[in-house]
Amino acid sequence: MATEVKVPVLGESVTEATVGELLKKVGDTVKVDEPIVSLETDKVAVEAPSPVAGTITELRVAVGDTVEVGAVIAVVGDAVAAGENTDVTPREAAAPAAPVTPPAPAPAQAKEVAGDAAQTLSPAVRRAVLEHGVDPSTIKGTGKDGRLTKEDVVAAAQARTGEPAPAAAPAPTPAAAPAATGERREERVKMTRMRQTIAKRLKSAQDTAALLTTFNDVDMTAVIEAREKYKDLFAKKHEIKLGFMGFFAKAACLALKDVPAVNAYIEGDEIVYHDYVDISVAVSAPNGLVVPVVRDAQAKGFARIEKDIADFGKRARDGSLTMEDMKGGTFTISNGGVFGSLMSTPIINPPQSAVLGLHRIEDRPVVRGGEIVIRPMMYIALSYDHRLIDGREAVTALKIIKEAIEDPTRMLIDL
After folding, report:
1. What SS3 state is found at 196?
2. CA separation for the pair 280, 329 (Å, rounded)
3. Cα–Cα distances in Å, from 178 out to 131, 171, 276?
4. Which of 137, 231, 283, 318 could serve as a FRET partner for 143 with CA atoms 20 to 30 Å apart?
5. DSSP 24-93
């Protein structure tokens, strides 16, 4: 008996998705709830699982196709009956899964094919494997269900740094030829649905909002000392590391309470104020930037905030974030410092009206008590919609955050 696999419900107001990756091919056996196709929506990647156990007899989509909720993407038959089905539609013959058994693979590709016996590699991972000349079968995947990610391949390649490269490695890799001949190449890659949405939203923010950024710098001495003093006790009690984001999230809650416009947004000809703080935390995912939401941050302690952020980071990397995780949000914190950024002007996340940008910490000379001393300093930036937030309010909010970080006791006694 054949069972149709359909595009699942993708979330509120989301009616279609793009096929990002075929995780199975015709003839493969699947278990109940085992993913068959990875779908890219505007915000997250969603997997379409098989509702039954059996063998895939038909695939009706290819990578890059746009599919609507409820559309049939595959057919799963009984394990025995499906083995007798040798019909393959033209669409299936063109499916990206076909290159798994090429007629004459190059040496580097042969390694990849051997690895594919146990796992399916996404196009991005395949390119990384060929580019770095690594054997995917020797790498432990950190993605969902143990699948390899591009970051896994890059990390494995970096781990080999300093080791002599195999003499034959450059030969089979097509990308190695231009380096030797000086030939220049171009590659055209279709934008993912998520990247297209990010581009539209950021451009819309520039076109709609009156964006302005105010800056300040923060002496991180007190926070660093607090972390150093309590990190072991904190980790032992809460089973999570004490990071900087918890401090900045609580400091932001103080600022947004005193300056409510920074936690509001414009809707039509009305201003919507919130008596709660839902902080969108910008997280880097393999397919782009995502902003899951720490809800009711004003009511949560440091440990709960740190756990939420750590969980979001992990799920962003393995692609298991849901639409609900990113729904809403009244204020955003973006930490470019983890990538080495010294200063930036972050763009607001519509319909929000403000975003706090954090940057790297570096020792700089500052004046304290009439003397020049070295302190660990960080530049912080607040970009805001000037239609709603006046300069005085923006500067005040950023100043409150600065003061709370430089004297964390303020966060305990609500100053």
Report:
1. helix
2. 5
3. 13, 12, 56
4. 231
5. --TT-EE-TT-EEEEEE-SS-EEEEE-SS-EEEEEE---TT-EEETT-EEEEEE-HHHHHT-----HHHH
Question: What does the pLDDT look like over 185-240, one tens digit per residue?
Answer: 888 887 777 777 778 888 888 888 899 999 999 999 999 999 999 989 999 999 99
What band does 18 get if pLDDT is binned at 50, 70 and 90?
A: confident
What is the reported pTM?
Answer: 0.62
Position 234, amino acid? F
Reduce the secondary structure of 222-267 to three states and give it as a string.
HHHHHHHHHHHHHHHHHCCCCCHHHHHHHHHHHHHHHCHHHHCEEE
DSSP letters spanning 286-321: TTEEE--EETTGGG--HHHHHHHHHHHHHHHHHT--
CA distance from start to end of the chain: 67
b/e map of 33-44 (b: 16 or more CB within 10 Å)? Answer: ebbbbbbbbbbb
Contacts of 187 (CB under 8 A, 6+ apart): none
Q: What does the DSSP 8-state code read for residue 271?
A: E
pLDDT of residue 95: 46
Q: Can you say whether the dihedral through the CA atoms of 11, 16, 22, 26 is positive or negative? A: positive
Residues across the chain:
415
Helices then strands, each counted (H, E), the chain: 12, 19
Within 8 A by CB and 6+ apart from 291, the residues are: 280, 281, 282, 283, 326, 329, 332, 349
Report DSSP letters for 314-365, one per residue.
Answer: HHHHHT---TGGGS--SEEEEEGGGGT-S---PPP-TT-SEEEEE--EEEEE
Q: How far apart are CA 328 and CA 324, in angstroms?
A: 9
- Tokens representing 15? 């009616």
C-alpha 348/C-alpha 59 separation (Å) is 41
Identity of the residue numbered 171: A
Q: What is the CA 167 to chain-centroid distance, rounded? A: 37
The catalytic site residues sit at 386, 390
Residue 25's nearest CA partner among 104, 109, 111, 116 is 116
